[in-house]
């Protein structure tokens, strides 16, 4: 097939009706078409498998990047490969709690080249988006290998990078890192955590509201997930208490393109300076929905400042206040999953990875998409295209496929 062309089979469908798509489960990691690393029991090659671009992660940002690589003429398997840590298509969405239905999803944007149509708003978002991502991978014949764990990315030989994984080593000329944040839940430490007799869990393991029926629940965090959990749990719990480090910022009314650009610019400026990125919602605020208005009127959103310590039976403040609790739910967000990039020493003194667009300032072979200002769905789509354009300028034409 000529470089830069997508096969006829891949051109057939540019939309998917989620009521009729069967979600595929992961089938493991197959052996590369060029004899590269695999999990089929055969001996792995001693030399790393060379290719032009390795994409790490198959969520929104990774699939968008893979789509643009195909359009630029990079051949699947020989020119580029996508490695996915997850067992099935869907990125982090496949791990979301079952009560997060598609109709409750905030800010989901279609992947480039294929709309998501006809999705049942009452269906779990994990199923809807998992099926959509699976159909997308098939339609564009994207070379996604899963499940694969990437342990490190470091300097290789001949100007290439060396990527060590659970299925062997790769030697790409460039890397697009699209690992997101789901694998790095942030769990702050507070005095007395080890003495609390109740249950503590992070939003990454949130099972849905039924697990909290009849219990006294403290929800920690001021983001979208914290509020979603709080509203659900309040319907079944004996009591709920909401605590945040800072007063939550609610916004009402329209949020137009100008406001969106201003919010992204604030996050982008931190990344440009090499500071740890803040979430976009931290500068946009929480949209006030009708459900949230009702919850506020009912007192569910009566926020308290962060407690100072946990005790055996609850949480306490230094001013003498105390709340009994059976459960503390830490909806305290996530951090970028970039530890595997540590050998490249990309971090700045401020603790973050400085980017010029999507390119790591300290290594032009490495691009981060879904990081900082591109952490939203629409931002990830744009970042995927931008990263591929920059990589194409760096590498020139894709490596010709051997006859």
UniProtKB/TrEMBL annotation:
It comes from the Bacteria. GO terms for molecular function: flavin adenine dinucleotide binding; monooxygenase activity. SUPFAM superfamilies: FAD/NAD(P)-binding domain. Keywords: Oxidoreductase. Pfam families: Pyr_redox_3 (PF13738). Residues 1-49 are annotated as: Disordered. Residues 27-39 have a biased composition (Gly residues). It comes from Streptomyces buecherae. Signal peptide: none annotated. The lineage of its organism: Bacteria, Bacillati, Actinomycetota, Actinomycetes, Kitasatosporales. This is NAD(P)/FAD-dependent oxidoreductase.
